[in-house]
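ping. complex inputs:
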Amino acid sequence: MNEKTVAVLKQAFKEFYFKNAEKIITPIRMKEREFGYMSFDKVMVRHLSFQTEGDLRAFLIKEMPHSVYYSCAYYYEPTFAMDEKGWKGADLIFDIDADDIPTRCKEEHDHWICKDCNFMDKGKRPDKCPKCEGMRIDEKNWVCPLCLKATKDEAIKLMDFLLKDFGITKENIEVYFSGGRGYHVTVERSALEELDQLARSEISDYVSGIGLNLESLGISKRASYEKMQRMLPLANDSGWRGRIAKFFSEMEFECYNSNDVKDKMIYIYRKMKHKNFENFVGEVIGKLSTKIDAMVTTDIHRIFRLPNTLHGSTGMLKRRCDDLLSFDPFIDAVALGEEPMQIFVDHSPKFTLMGKIFGPYKSERVKLPLMAAVYLIGKGLAEVD
Amino acid sequence: MGIEFGLEDLAKYPFMKEAGDYVKKLSLRVEDLGQEDYRPAVERAKQRVMEAIQKNYISIEISEPIVELLSFPLALMLVKAMNVEYIIHRYSLAEAIRAESLLKEEKKSIISYIFKSTFNLEPISVKHELFDLKIKLIEYLKRATHFHEPEWKLINRVVDNGFVYLKTHELVRLIREEIRRTIYDRMKGVSLPSMPKNLKEAVHEISRVLPPRSDKFQRVTPDKFPPCIIYTLDLIKKGQNLSHYGRFLLTTYLLSIGKSVDDIIDIYPRSPDFNERMTRYQVEHIAGMRGGRRRYKVPSCRTLATHGLCFKDKILCAKIRSPFQFGKKPLFKKKSTGQIRE
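pong. complex structure:
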């Protein structure tokens, strides 16, 4: 990014924070959290702490950071070195990112460029360039409404696990659009905050459907029909057992037509045989589980983008979704204004912000509203020349 | 709760605070324990420890509740007097197993009372075809992550509205580790008075039945360890901190010579930053029982040199490439084919 572009971005961010300072939401127990930020020179600063809302707002206007972060963890001494902070607990956070969800649209809008020979192609980044075998490959991932719809669907599934299985109350769960490529689901004010890394990996495996064995459903090679009838779940049972039974009760299988879900599962099990049935249940779990980033949930020291601050790579807000179903990131999270700005766009697919359609562009100089210009600049697709 | 806990119950579960209080009220003095009246309690204490050492099990029969109850703190003294770390571990575990077998047969109300009073855990009875009790999700997770069999994974349990459903024996098994830890911590806290003759004799008698530690481990005895391993063990013995890579080396090496995960964890407690849970996780990870299920190999001598952990013995280490080969005959000799490889 050239100097002129950086200066323009900084100015845009500064103005935004100046005008919207009162909208910055400070997280609960702010004094116990670590804060950090990344400057537009990509320098990361961590181990900061703010005592008041005012301190934080003044800091944002002064520093104009590319990104601002806060820790999920609560510490005795947030400004000390990591080993000396004194961990008290941490919010339980789930990150759902478009990168982790395979969608067909990616083949269309994602592309990569070989830094050695400039060869470019659509789709997922290969390990090495097919032309020159170079390993230095730059990924240009785009995010479209379809990608974000897929991440929202995962967030909705996750909410079901949190509310029904884990019994977390709605008031203690916040869902945020991350400002970039997905959603953050945060559980605060819950006894689960004291869980360590190992326990969190169990939570993560649970919602991701990792490690479920058929015995827990009541199915085993040696079990009689009667035993399986006794052990198998019903469609309205709770937890994973109920989810899987519900799937079986609703699926069509050959000409089986009884309403007895246990009998149906045994019938299908015996028709498919053990191994195939196991694989089939694996596929069912794949459909019913949520695709979260396990590394994020199990990391008890991680820092996350601060709500209501700008995402340096999009100029959009990390924004709380009061109504997840109706939330539209390309409207509700757009933060910057419509002041016209001239930029040079290297390339860009078609995109929509605030209901306005932009692009596609290819090596051209265009005048765009600030929100769209910053969106392309942040993604490294355009510059101020 | 309206549960009356009698002497017999305390004798069954002597690790409970109530049992300790009962014994305290008797205001016994150590010197009294030499008297003939206490002989049965001393005998039972000795039996407890012997059984734990020899069979990894302590009998559950109770001849006389007061004898049984008194024998527990006495047994703690005997084990403490022996001052052998692995006997302390072994004894705590055997006591926990004894409690587990008794608890499995208890009424739900008794179990709930014991768990509430001793472990601050409140199981709730449920009317369910497959389960007897439920506990809070957080209480389950805090304990179940110690277990590695698939049935303890959260995803394989019935989880509903913040509770995990369990059968009685499963809940008891879940708590066993905590009983073990309670007894272990109690023992660590026991202050050892000067003991009367009969107790000293009991300690002596028990010491004579100590078995060799582990047969597999015996095959590669510490005097046959390569210098790098001796170095890491030395640091641990001195209570000094061993680097992350040093721990990795020691763990992979001990696994390769057939030591069990538990034996390896036992080696670490003297480190200043010891955390049993984390150590277990890491050792099991290296053993291929966790995560990617990959069993890690002992690093090569060259890699150890990079990490400053190679203390090469000019003669004994001359022909080896990995500490694992130390002191062993080479399996095969490289044949010279005369070819030049570039």
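The longest helix of chain B spans residues 168-189.
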